[in-house]
Design a protein that fits this description.
ANK repeat; globular; 8% strand; repeat; three-stranded antiparallel beta sheet; 5 helices; calcium-independent phospholipase A2 activity; PNPLA_dom; alpha+beta
Length: 183
């Protein structure tokens, strides 16, 4: 429930965001996530609802978006191989530990150290709702091509939790023109 999530968050902040020095220690966060989500629970253990979590693959240039899922990706439905070299020690998305998925997605620079090759998903996916809608569209198209229309997704609800908005302030326009007296 929402009340349970709220209680969990307040426990998290008291155990994880300790002290003034950042980045914060990763171990308390990892222990908290393991206790809350289970040490051995995998993404594929959750059958419903379908879940997608974003992370940034930061061990390459340019960085890439990683979608942790508990379902087949559109490429898997079509039998395609991912164009990006997979991260060496990463299991298939359905086999990924849930606590590690959460840790990878929340590895915000200046707050926590990277989780292996992963950083905060918001570095690449700063509008995860759009990425989710794009994923649903691509998955439905793939299911149609694979003659699996009965598995198509029909969106019931989107929950998008943000951290607020920065108040707008008037600032001076930056003028990059070279001054005439410079020559």
């Amino acid at each position: 429930t929402a009340a349970d999530c709220r209680k969990l968050y307040f426990k998290l902040k008291d155990k994880v965001f300790v002290g003034l020095i950042r980045p914060y220690e990763s171990e308390p966060l990892e222990k908290f996530l393991q206790n809350a989500l289970g040490e051995d629970t995998r993404m594929g253990d959750i059958k419903a609802p379908r879940i997608m979590v974003t992370a940034t693959v930061a061990d390459r240039f340019p960085p890439d978006l990683q979608l942790f899922r508990n379902y087949e990706s559109p490429n898997e439905v079509l039998g395609f191989v991912n164009r990006v070299e997979p991260v060496a020690d990463m299991p298939k998305p359905q086999e990924q530990l849930i606590w590690k998925t959460a840790r990878s997605s929340g590895a915000a620079p200046t707050y926590f150290r990277p989780c292996g090759a992963f950083l905060d998903g918001g570095l690449i996916s700063n509008n995860p709702t759009l990425d989710t809608l794009s994923e649903i569209h691509a998955l439905n198209k793939a299911l149609k091509v694979a003659n699996r229309e009965n598995e198509e997704l029909h969106l019931d609800l989107v929950v998008s939790l943000g951290t607020g908005a920065i108040p707008i302030k008037t600032v001076q326009v930056i003028d990059i023109a070279r001054p005439d007296s410079f020559m």
